[in-house]
Amino acid sequence: MKRWLFTTVAALALVGLAQQAPGAHPGRLVVADAKDGSLKVLDLETAQVVGTFSTPGPANVYPVTGTPYVFAVHREANRVSVVYSGLWLEDHGDHEDLLLEKPYVFATLNTGPKPTHYFNHGHHAAIFNDGDGTVAVFDTRKLGVVADFKEYATGAPDHGAPVVMGDALLSGSLNRGVVEVYTLAGRKVLEFPGCPRLHGEAVAGNTTAFGCDDGVLLLERRGNGFAARKLAEPAGSPANARVGPLVAHQAHPFFIGNFGQGLARLDARFTPYPLPANPVRFAFSADGRYLVVLTADGRLHVLEPADGKVLRSLGVVGPVAAGGEGAVRPSLAVGTEHAYVADPQKGVVLEVELANLQVRRSFEVGGTPLSLALVWLEGVRH
Q: Which of 132, 188, 341, 343 is 20 to 30 A from residue 32's alpha carbon, by CA?
């Protein structure tokens, strides 16, 4: 069943994201506010807010690979917004022109109750609805024309982690500690238990990783099926350490997950990367050269992904309080050359150069910035 509230349909062509080239437009940053639920679109070339929109409520925002769109997931308002960033590529055969347009909210949808966990890989985006256990799957190539989605029922409310991998939907369950595999036609074909308190997922090559209370569950695609392997935590690991959020990048044959006061590299082995404080946010740079981590002491770190060596560190915000109801933590978005850190206490977004870890600009966005999504395109400018 498709639950529609409002959709603006425009006949737009499909586009592709590319890595940022020297001299290219630096992109646009979508900033979601924690208090009034507004979304601001900040143009990083002019340092001007080029669009401000009211929404159903506070949201976490996520860029959509291969498109100029951003998903805003309003968990408490039971809604999802699709925002057009205003960056556009126009195909001219031997090249593409970059056009700068006015941003707008393309669609506001009801994908299901308590939409929470968002995942994007290839040409699909998936949102798990905690309230009823359904998963909404979008074909992102259609964004700009329609914001249609297909709904999959997993059987019960839960806090889930969805992955679309080729022609399969993998749905992880926190409370049941299992991963269920569905065809995109909606038929359940496999189930993998043994991942207690499952949380977090990422895809690297033909393997999907899910964080567990006692390690990581790896599902490798083999032909029409999957083979499971459990990567256990090292002996003597702290009792409260576990893998939850996970990230991956096509430049590296491993996953990175949080793990106690640090991170962990996850491939054939489980290799901890110690840090001076607990990680709050972490991501690869867009080109995969760096691993960028914001820790609870308010410092931003640039790491060597292969071995976890800390190359540079800089204090960017005040100490981060432990998460709790109503707490707003700093957010992070990372491009190729810069990281963007939102300080909810000061209403600013800092632009930090990764090569030397210096703050280059500070954007006064006001309010209480909750979440950031960076969108950029590479094209010819006239």
A: 132
